[in-house]
Amino acid sequence: MTPEEIKNIQNLTENWLAWDQNSTSRNEIEALKKDENWEKLGKIMCKRLEFGTAGIRGRMGPGFGQMNDLVIIQVTQGLRNYLLKVQKDIREKGVVYGFDGRYNSERWAKLAAGVFLREKIPVYLFKTTTPTPFVPFAIRQIGLSAGVMVTASHNPKWDNGYKVYWDNGAQILSPHDKEIQKEILNSLQPEDGAFQEPDGSHPLLSDPMSLVNDQYFQVVKETARDYSMNTRLSIPVVYTAMHGVGHPYVRQAWTCAGFKEDLLHSVKEQQDPDPEFSTVDFPNPEEGATALDLSFRNADSIGSKYILANDPDADRLGVAQKLTDGKWKILSGNEIGALFGWWHLKIFQEKNPKVSPSDIYMLASTVSSKILNTLTQKIGANFIETLTGFKHMGNVAHRLLGEKKHVLFAFEEAIGFMCGSAVLDKDGVSAVARLAELIAFLEEQNLTLQDQLNNIYLEYGYHYTLNSYYLCYDPELTNKIFTRIRSFQGKPDTYPESLGGVTVKDVRDLTTGFDSSQPDKKATLPTSKSSHMITFWLENGVVITLRTSGTEPKIKYYTEYCAKPGLPQSSWKDLEEELGRIVSAMIDTLLQPQINDIKPKPN
Hints:
The chain has 20 helices and 23 strands. The strands form four sheets. Strands 16, 17, 18, 19, 20, 21, 22 and 23 form an eight-stranded antiparallel β-sheet that branches. A six-stranded mixed β-sheet has the order 1-5-4-2-3-6, with helices on both faces. A five-stranded mixed β-sheet has the order 8-7-9-10-11, with helices on both faces. The two termini are about 40 Å apart.
């Protein structure tokens, strides 16, 4: 480490000690300074947590590069100052804050509230833990300028985050994130009283629960397909809140939709918010058996064949079904998306037979299954593909609603589902009610979720996915891999002409903006040179997307076989094997793991 680098770290450390008033984090920094541990200080001081379109998220601890009181105050001062510039009526409208059950979440929501109150901006602060979707719902319900949820969703217990929504109830998009970051860097010095939580009796501070709770669950009730059918459901369903906030809200959604309360069996050990996530390694339903082990045992003990699982902030939904052979199957996000897509189309057309299909829309991210495209094509409705993340789907949905269109459903393969348009973000609470309703519908026909999934594939074509990733810790090597793909035939924009012996029909590169399917060869989706994403469409119906992760050292691949309708179920195994062969060839041809010494996802 050079003297100049040490001097920079020393200056950052002095700034920290001049600003931080939290005794715990101050003591940690002072100890590191006393020991002259410049290497550790450099790691937590030099790379500031940057505000992006998802807000900020990171490990809790002292330093500008971690989540702590000072960073929360600085971020909120920047956010507030930006809002004051662009939302002229913010002092009339106000903002909303919610928090999950993680360490520090409640305190940081209160400190952030204080930042706005000092500028005489009304703050609606939930007094108890709430699901993330309650924040965007509150923005639209009350008519607010912005909202923030303090949560790290399903991240490990040592993380926390700060998720920002705009006045339309959707997550912020660029350029708001860049402008907020500029304001943060101009607002680093904490204001007087910044480390003191505001008095609960402050005249501009209120709890929005009474304005939000009844209205939210009224929507759940009103959008039920058949309330009386729901009352007839007679089989038990196991639910886990995964040590998060979901349980009381899901139970309310359950009864509001007409289901008997005693049929919802909560996993008691995971029912209440627990910042330690004591019974799981990672509190994410996508982790599979390691996260759902207690749910499996609970379901087996009461003879339930369904498990519904929220993540800790209740914006995602995992689903498992016990098959006829006695084994549990965890449905993928794409499979749940197929079921939801079919169900939402059925309900809407039953209730609104006079609405033209041309005014009906469903959305999915570009790395999710194309099943919604297949469903909508058959009836002449619309499917819109967006970049990854509900920040894109929420904002597109808001635009469509402004055009008086009907947005029925949106999803991403990472078990995120937007059922309807009351919340312009993924919502695991309303999703529980909608899926339970589908279960009730199928039970009356002696069918299961898996049966219906098979029926969808028979009618619309088998959609089979294989998704995974390779670990690549060297950004330069990642760039080299993608550069080679883009110049596969020795010059720019010359991609592979075949993969696994199958002709490549079209290529879209959202890094360079190239799209061979467009007349002008320019992609219609937004592009970004800061990340890599290339999609290949093969002649046999296979779609392959390669992309980098913005937060992890991964090269991810998403692949799907979109088969033609009418193929018998007996042929599906052959399609699965063919996709497996194509994926293996794609990995060898494009990623070259042996040559590049990159490792696949650990088992």
